[in-house]
Write a structure and sequence with these properties.
Elements: H1 2-11, H2 23-51, H3 77-91, H4 97-123, H5 131-151, E1 160-164, E2 171-175, E3 184-186, E4 194-196, H6 208-234, H7 240-259, H8 262-268, H9 279-297, H10 306-323, H11 330-333, H12 335-358, H13 370-373, H14 395-416
Antiparallel strand pairs: 1-2, 3-4
Helix pairs in contact: 2-3, 2-9, 3-4, 3-9, 3-10, 4-5, 4-10, 5-6, 6-10, 6-12, 7-9, 7-10, 7-14
Length: 420
Amino acid sequence: MLYYLFDYLQTVGFPGARLMDYITFRSGCALMLSLFIALVFGRKIIDRLQLMQVGEIIRDLGLEGQMQKKGTPTMGGVIIIISILIPCLLVGNLSNVYMILMLVTTMWLGTLGFLDDYLKMSRHNKDGMSGKFKIAGQIGLGLVVGITMYASPDVVIRENVETDNIQNGELVVTYKAENIKTTQTTIPFVKNNNFDYAYLTQWMGEHAQTGGWILFVIVIIIAISGTSNGANLTDGLDGLCTGISAIIGVALAIMAYLGGNIIYSSYLNIMYIPGSEELVVYMSAFIGALIGFLWYNAFPAQVFMGDTGSLTLGGIIAVFAILIHKELLIPLLCAIFFIEDLSVMLQVTYFKYTKKRYGAGRRIFKMTPLHHHFQKPGNSGIDAILQAPLRAIPESKIVTRFWIIGIFLAAITFVTLKIR
C-alpha cells in the first residue's frame, strides 16, 4: 500500500518518492517492520494465548526438561504469519505474481496449520487433523502454484547463452532477447546449471512440453509436502525450526536477488528470472519475522510456533524455491528437514519389520525425530542400533549445532552452482 502511495507521490514530484523503486530499500523496510511487529506485538499475542489457556500438550517421553514445557503457549506461528503479511502488504508490489503466490501460500498453509492446532486444543490431545487432510491441503496448494506458473504470462525466464571470447579465451554469458515460458530449472554439477523437465517426456513427441509441465507440477507437490512436513517434524526443540528456517531464508533471498538481476545473473552465469526480485521483499519480511519470533522461542521458550508455524514455514520455503526455479536444490539446502523426515520413516519401518519377524520391535535410533535421539543417553535400556552419543546432549547445544550444520548446508548449496 505504501508502495502505491509512493508511486503516486513520484508523479507529483515528491522528494525521495523514488526510494520505493529500489528492491534493497523496500527489503530493508520489510525486514525492520516484520522484526518490530514480531518483537512488540508478539509479546501481546503470547499474553493473549496464555489468557486463552492455549498451552502445549506434552507427552512424557523421558527427556530432560520436557515436562517443564507443559502449558507453554502454542500456536505462536500466528506471530510469524502476521509479521510477514503486514510488511508485504505495506511495501510489496501486490501486482507481482510472485508476491501474490507467496501471500497465498502463507495464508493457505497458515490456515491448515491453525486448524490442526485448534483440533489438538479442542480435543486436549496430540491428535489434530488427519494426515490425509494435511496432505490434501498441501497437494491443493501445489496445484494452485503449478497451474498459476503454467497459465500466468508473467512467470517467464530469460535463457542464458554461453560464448567463448576468441581473443582472450574467456567465457561470455549473454541472454536471449525474448522471455520464454518453460519448465527449465536449476540443477548443480552441469555446465549451464539448467535442466528441462520436458527432457524426460520427449517420448511424448509433440506433447513433450505438456508432459514436462505435468511432471513439474508433480515435483512441486512433492517439494511442498516433503518440506512442510519436514519442518513440522523439526519443530521439536526450542528455537530449532525457527533458526534453521531463518538460515535457509537468507540463502534463498540471496538466490532470488541474484536471479532477478540480469547483471549479476550474467556475471554468475545463472538463470535470469524477470520480476522475481520482488521475492526478496517477501523473504526479508520472512527473515525478520523469524528473528523476532526467536526472541521468545529461544531456549527456554516462552511460546511454541505449533503446526500453525511449522507447516507454514516449510511450505513457504518450498514454494519460494520453486518460484526461483531452485526446487532441485531443496534436498541439500533443507537437508536437516529431510533427515528428520527420513529418521522417522526408517524408525517406523524397521520397528514394524522386526516386530513381524522376531516378535518384538527394534529401533535404529534411541528416539525420533532425530533431534530427540541426541537427548537420550545411550545404553539406558533402549533397544536401538545407534547408541551414540552415550551421554545426553543439552537441548540448547543440540539446537546450536543444528544451526551450524544449516549454515554449512547453505554454503555448500551455493558452492555446487559453481562446480560444473
